[in-house]
Amino acid sequence: MSTPIELPKWADVSLVPILAVIVAFLVAGLVVLGIGENPVKATVLLIQGALGSGEGIGYTLYYATNFIFTGLAVAITFHAGLFNIGGEGQATMGGLGAALICLNLDFLPWYIVLPLAILGAMALGALWAFIPGYLQVKRGSHVVITTIMFNFLAATLVVYLLVNVIGKPGSMSPETRVFAASAHLPYLHEALAYFGLKIPKSPLNLSFVLALLASAFVWITVWHTKLGYAIRTVGHSPTAATYAGISIGRITLISMAMSGALAGMLAVNEILGVQTRLLLEFSSGYGFIGIAVALMGRAHPVGIVLASILFGMLYQGGTELSFEMPRVTRDMIVAISGLVILFAGALDGLIRRPVAGVFARFLKSGA
Amino acid sequence: MSGMEIYATLIAILESGLRLCVPLVFACLAGLWSERSGVVDIGLEGKMLVAAFASAAAAGATNSAVIGLGAGIIASIGFALIHGFAAISQRGNQIVSGVAINMLAAGLTALVGNAWYNQGGRTPPLEGNARFQPLTWPGAETIDQIPIIGPIYAHLLSGHSALAYCALVATFLSAFILRRTRFGLRIRAVGENPAAVDTAGVSVVRLRYSAVIIAGILCGFAGSYLALGQAAGFLTNMTAGKGFIALAALIFAKWRAWPALGACFLFGLLDAVAIRLQGVMVPGIGQIPVQAIQALPYLMTVILLAGFIGKAIPPKASGLPYVKER
Fold this sequence. Notes:
The complex is a heterodimer. Chain A has helices at residues 9-34, 39-51, 54-79, 87-105, 110-139, 143-165, 188-194, 207-224, 226-236, 238-243, 248-264, 266-275, 286-296, 301-324, 331-346, 348-366. Chain A is mainly alpha-helical. Chain A has a domain at 64-296. Chain A starts with 8 loop residues before the first helix and ends with a helix. Chain B has one domain (11-305): ABC transporter involved in vitamin B12 uptake, BtuC. At the A-B interface, helix 6, helix 13, helix 15 and helix 16 of A face helix 3, helix 4, helix 11 and helix 13 of B.
């Protein structure tokens, strides 16, 4: 990425991203001010909407689930020195994978259909990232451009299939039939009711647990396995990796496929958990916001979970906010994500340099 | 269908292909300038979108398409400068910056559009002087009656908005400047080997900023054409991926101006054919899925990039920030 600027590690992983988010929010506040609303009042409404009720918290965590999956997907490629901006397409294909299993096998009991559907989502997501990876390794075309193109290819493919092949016959809107109940991933309020616990109703489902497991899996894989070591070596210095006998091509393929599988799991939350049918544009920008999440979370699972909860709050709180303040629509969240990507990513140095300067002065006066 | 009817259909498809390719040409040339100077730009989409919004807002307020165009260009340059600042001065990741610009543009235009006009993000419809009306060439209606050649004159040469002809001029100027002038040579050099340019005593930063600003101007034209020429006002996310199609066309044209025009026309034509074939039964084949045609530009770009037909090699230093040696 950008030129490294020396900072203590704790400042690098917490202070800099927090400052970046604060700057992004200040700019967003100016925008709110610009359209004639009170940013302080908007913030209070947003936080109340996100965390003010049990239902609000449920929605917040439901949105966060999507961001954890797409954030992890982007992060794992960051570690390998790659940039997968095809999360949208991989998630779309994940939806297709899950739907194909459910449409054909949902007469089977849940303990067979659900695992298969989840695997289906991961498999097609992985495939949609593996092909661009393969084309980079074998044919020299850059994954960034190929994954962009693959986003559009996935979208057109799924439109075609929904309109002509797997769509519900006689339905005007391009969507499949609703899957049988055995293929619905249970809501958390249902699952906990089974154990006698009562929580407010929300779309939050067991995917949230899967997202946390995926975060733990990524943490263990990247930092505590041989494969993770190889991935990070390739990301840091491809030359050193080659010298150490690590195949860059193999690592590229593996990390792209893992990334695609994670992005595909977005469909587990949206399609198996909430919609229970395949429809168009269910990925609605989550793939791109995953980039903001990964940058803000410094590509670390703990950071990603925290950043995802923040974005979940923005989504849920933003929805509530748009009821109270109709002028501040949910498009605000897209703009804020853009600002976060800008300040935590491309303009990272703008924040990092002054922080490093302060630290340098502080250390000098201390010595 | 008689021969004449087939011919009329052909002319109609070509005409609509020409209309659809205009914004692609501007955006593609914008990408050409930027990437030739070594700055990768996946934010074409976002710049077009802010330009479309600003131009529609300004044209609506002043009832002047020209002022609208000016506003569109200024807004687009503003976003181009953010990208330039991140990519050139801050040496940040250019892909990340491009993604940020696209999201910022999508969010802000919808948000502000809704707050200002209260119509779900769209601007009030424009008419009369607030739009770029088609220019009818002398005698087009009479000449249209002449078989074969008439429709070519009346529908393909005549009858487009002034901005469409600007696209042709912009292609010529881009090709000429990049190829034949000192400035153009330096832009190309800075995209291939910035260190050499720096050694020759020419400012890498200044060259790259000028290329990025030119890209901003061109995206300003692209967006304004969408809002003031093709449509009558701004709609949320009205670029609908055109910035990425332009990027594909740029790769297809192997980063050259005239081939860029050709690639954009091809992609515009595919779009026109897709619209035309919607629900039409083709004898012997049946219904051709529109999505298959829509997917073609992306598919062809992937295949080309993978080197299966020819080879597309980007400027050598594109995407790499330049660090001056001390």
